[in-house]
Structure of Csc1-like protein:
Amino acid sequence: MATLQDICVAAAINILSAFAFLVAFAILRLQPVNDRVYFPKWYLKGLRSSPKSSVALGRFVNLDFKMYMRFLNWMPAALKMPEPELVEHAGLDSAVYIRIYLLGLKILFPITILTLVVLVPVNWTGKTLELAKFKNLTFSNIDKLSISNIPTGSKRFWAHLVMSYVCSFWTFYVLYKEYKKVATMRLEFLASECRRPDQFTVLVRNVPPDPDESVSEHIEHFFCVNHPDHYLTHQVVHNAVKLAKLVEKKNSFQNWLVYYQNKYERNPVNKPTIKTGFWGLWGSRVDAIDHYTDEIAKLSEEMFNNVTFIQEDAERERVIIDPKAIVPAAFVSFKTRWGAAVCAQTQQSKDPTIWLTDWAPEPRDVFWDNLAIPYFELTIRRLLMAVGLFFLIFFFMIPIAFVQSLANIEGIEKVLPFLKPLIEKKVVTSVIQGFLPGIALKIFLIVLPKVLMTMSQIEGFTSLSSLERRSAQKYHLFILVNVFLGSVVTGTALQQLHQFIDAPAGEFAKTIGMSVPMKATFFITYIMVDGWAGIAAEILRMVPLVIFHLKNTFLVKTEQDREQAMDPGFLSFATSEPRIQLYILLGLVYSVITPVLLPFIVAFFAFSFLIFRHQIINVYDQKYESGASFWPDVHRRIIIGLIIAQIIHMGLLGASGADKSTTPCLIAQPILTLWFHIFCKGRFESAFVRFPLQEAMVKDTLERATEPNLNLKTYLQDAYIHPVFKGSKLDIPVVIDEEENNPLVPTKRTSRQSSIHSFDVSSEADL
Amino acid sequence: MATLQDICVAAAINILSAFAFLVAFAILRLQPVNDRVYFPKWYLKGLRSSPKSSVALGRFVNLDFKMYMRFLNWMPAALKMPEPELVEHAGLDSAVYIRIYLLGLKILFPITILTLVVLVPVNWTGKTLELAKFKNLTFSNIDKLSISNIPTGSKRFWAHLVMSYVCSFWTFYVLYKEYKKVATMRLEFLASECRRPDQFTVLVRNVPPDPDESVSEHIEHFFCVNHPDHYLTHQVVHNAVKLAKLVEKKNSFQNWLVYYQNKYERNPVNKPTIKTGFWGLWGSRVDAIDHYTDEIAKLSEEMFNNVTFIQEDAERERVIIDPKAIVPAAFVSFKTRWGAAVCAQTQQSKDPTIWLTDWAPEPRDVFWDNLAIPYFELTIRRLLMAVGLFFLIFFFMIPIAFVQSLANIEGIEKVLPFLKPLIEKKVVTSVIQGFLPGIALKIFLIVLPKVLMTMSQIEGFTSLSSLERRSAQKYHLFILVNVFLGSVVTGTALQQLHQFIDAPAGEFAKTIGMSVPMKATFFITYIMVDGWAGIAAEILRMVPLVIFHLKNTFLVKTEQDREQAMDPGFLSFATSEPRIQLYILLGLVYSVITPVLLPFIVAFFAFSFLIFRHQIINVYDQKYESGASFWPDVHRRIIIGLIIAQIIHMGLLGASGADKSTTPCLIAQPILTLWFHIFCKGRFESAFVRFPLQEAMVKDTLERATEPNLNLKTYLQDAYIHPVFKGSKLDIPVVIDEEENNPLVPTKRTSRQSSIHSFDVSSEADL
């Protein structure tokens, strides 16, 4: 069991490493050569095209030493941008995402103050642990500040009971306010948005086959009949998996071609050659440039055979793939937002498994591979994935349990007695206990998200945002079982197995309740490693930095290439949100048990808020904009955390045998929480999943008045086109569908840019 | 513990009493004087106006002795009517309701045959119980046929495991077929229905207050703006609670007035007098007829003050109550079914707690008192009722446990040793063990439904059908916990407490699994009392028979009075469906445990099917028609029963220590069941809760073509009017809203009548 000293050593290590990351960041970001790594967002928005030029700055290295003096200036700069501007600059998703950190602060900061003031004195003056010393039980100084120090059956437990209620009600209050605020922000965001294709469009899936008509005709007829006043047009979906693979292969060859061309240019004496076999390790040696040029030509031809041209409008040429590759799904557009809102919310056919209509995700957000999965297959897939998730979660337990047992010095000494002399050195002890459990867990967790995302893809969700939300749900479950429960139960099971084995089984809450206080030190180290140093590493962006410079050296020829070499990254909701939830859960659980743990969490939230606010302003470029549709999930998971905390408090107080009357007092808490959840769900959730007709009507009316001559059909014609058919990659002229490029539809983007630019000047002046 | 002989005695008693009920019914129903008690449906449908006249029949007593010879002829007659005709005659609700009995038969009859053939030999040849005799354990012959007779750890348990899977898959198959069938029936029923106000109407609740407009104006403006092409008209809802009470009071006085008038006519010498005090026990003595005439006049005046007249259309007079009594809810009607379907399924305002739209229940089905409950109050009410239900369910345990302990002869002898000589007489033993537990339980259960219905009303549901469904849900939970689990655990707890007390707590499934086989005899007696004799008593209609003759003697003066004196009754879904679920649960649980219990259940289902089919043809008059919207509930509860059965099998096999490998084999079962439930829910449930636009469009188009000049507004004007304003009770001319009385809308009713009439002739010829 870690002592107070171990904690201090770990804290020192983590604070120092976090500080080192920050200093490195402060220096690296000032170098002009790294400008595209640390400020890619401004490049992508077209607000910056080269590093700030200043007389004192060098070409690659910043020589203006005054700027190094103010190396922490990015922190106030990150906080300066007001929220409405942030929403406009980075999108609602990002702006709301960092509100989760703020929410953590809002919930936990007052609770921290309150519990430190009220409960720490109550706990400290209990004398149980000092007496227990004689009973062969180990404990640390931290435990003296925790509920473990209260003698069994003491009246002091009433203080904890009352505090548990106070914490719950405070959380209710903050959650309610926040849900209301986010719902309002979402509605305002949707209302203020300019025209977008997804406002008029509905995704129709499971179009039944028709013997006489093609899919396209069938869709047109169905909607002409059933939505006669509103149907406008539709776009069928193509199965472009094969084509997408070809495009990807071609891009890779293109990169190699550029690489060898560059090599050749710099050293025209040696013409670069490669071997044609596996990974260039064997096979006949050929000229590299010729080889890739040939391959690319071959691929272009193959792609050409996969597509056919349709002459449209006389001057426009459209490209589609083989008509046989049309899948039974389509994006159906309506004349008005009202018509689309109606179609998205109603059932079309009496068979609820065909003609499924959902509001279309925005074009960037569509996950194209999943649009054509029949109903039965979908339910089977979900069943299999549920079973798979169960096994994934419960077989992952085994390695974690092993690492956990290692983290216990006494345990190692018992298992491997020959290591005793090494381990008993103070420094080694502190390192093992402070670092190892946290890092081992962390490595496991890095492997996981990709697996979970693949599982979600198999489940058949049709948009990237829903895939991320689903993966987050799985990940959260995983973290709950493996990180939280796994750490609490397994660690304790090894320590106190002999105490448990005689007691009757099944008293799960009590078991956990009893072991939670003893894991406080473990979680403190975990928070420091994962929360402090990990977040500081995030801002340094080591991996994108290295990759950018590699690409810049070997592949970049033009400005456009450099543009593409940037990897701004994005906020990954699926991996980071469940981790925030773990911290909130820990905060709620330990609020009345070991209040000294809370300041560590509060520090994490404050630090993360700062860093991520900086990142979303300067770095991240979100792949899609879902209008904060993840908030109900965030809310629900905090409620889950709250209920878990309440049950643990119940188990702990029950097991500590406070009064007989405490358990009935506490049982009302989870019921109230459930009710609060149902109340909030009814009150706010529909803002995130439904589409009020009144709002749609207002926007329609406004639009009719301001733009009576709008040709909506042209606007929507090619909005939902598979990304493979987009851009110059295909070497075929395709219709450009991006809103801003469509001359028919002037948007507000230009006016927005100027407003951002004015901010840009002020906020970047500090650099 | 009941022996085989006890069971036989109980069976004899119950079969005899059931037979006695049937004979009594066969005789009573042939008496012309009882015709309105046993065939009220035909009178209500206007297909019969007086008892069948025949030369041989007397005025009050049937003298045609040939008819007594064929006294069981009603049974084939009840089965003769084909299902489509039954739907037309009695409504879809009733027709689908008796399909629940059929479903029970379909599930359990093949299972019965199979388990009797396969498992009884397997169980019989196990020798455990004969050995156990020496270990001071009591058992009956029934137990020899059950799983208790298999020795611990035997390979024979694999037979039970396989049978458990076979039963589950057979149940899946039948449930799927049945869900599909009922969904089809519902869709066909809705499609074939003639025009009804609820097809065009949406119930709007939580209309927000507006400072400038009345509720009615506000509603009109809102829907004119947001559904401009579809909005037709609306009717506001009045708070008529006070008026309804006055009407009720007046009706009661009217009855007394008629009673005293009749008395006076028969005996003109004594003018009847009453005392004016409490219950006529004291106070000054006045002339009864004058007193009631005065009171009625007073009430009429009071009612008059509560309402105001509005002159409409010149010749029509409408009555409404005080405008201040308008509640913020309304029935909004649309020009097309499509428009109504759209409005019912979409969200209107961005605040999801106002402008709530739901498909309107049919006018008879509306529960008027609950239309104006604000959102917050509604959630509070639901919370309180959930807590209330919890206490109701768990405090009801106590009396049941007491009665259960009485049902055990050995228990009584221990508690009250002086009763020993009496109890040990064979007959008394059999009566106590065969009858008492069943009847005591039954009495408890009769008290309950009214309480549950009141609780559902407080929860704020807006239609009678949803109230019934909700009450059924509560009642089902109650039966599960108190009748099923209560009987299994409590009974056993008293018998085997000493065996349990040492084992670790929490192994709930195992505990139940072990005690279930021992309760088989109890459930057999319960099935006989509740299922056999109880159902036979249903057909005799003792209470309506007595009340009808009382009313007929004292109150009836005209044919119309006699019409009103009839009490046809109705199928009470809320009380009887959960009981069916109990039988299905018992069948599924005991299928692999004690297969000899199953024939009793199968007999119950066959007998009930017969009797209820007779009743819905000849007697019951449903209060509303919901189009079998209760089927998803029925399906879900059978799934719940199946999962409980599977868990019990798992616990039993786990506790019997079959192989270690059986429990993992069985754990897949509940998961598969859950998946099956989700699959069916997605596949069929929407047919019961949503309204496909395609269907609406088809009906609209058809109607436009066949009746181009239909004045829908007039048709819908007064469809949703509070029942207080209806009929002649108010002595005020009101607009008649019943579809059949509206001259503008010719319905198919007349043509339907003739088809029923033709059936009537054939089926009644047997009488």
In short: The beta strands of chain B are 201-205, 231-238, 273-275, 285-287, 307-312, 316-321, 326-334, 356-359. The radius of gyration of chain B is 30 Å. Chain B touches chain A at residues 187, 222, 225-227, 229, 341-342, 345-350, 352-353, 355, 375-376, 379, 382-383, 386-387, 504-507, 671, 675, 678-679, 682-687, 690-695, 697 (CB under 8 Å).
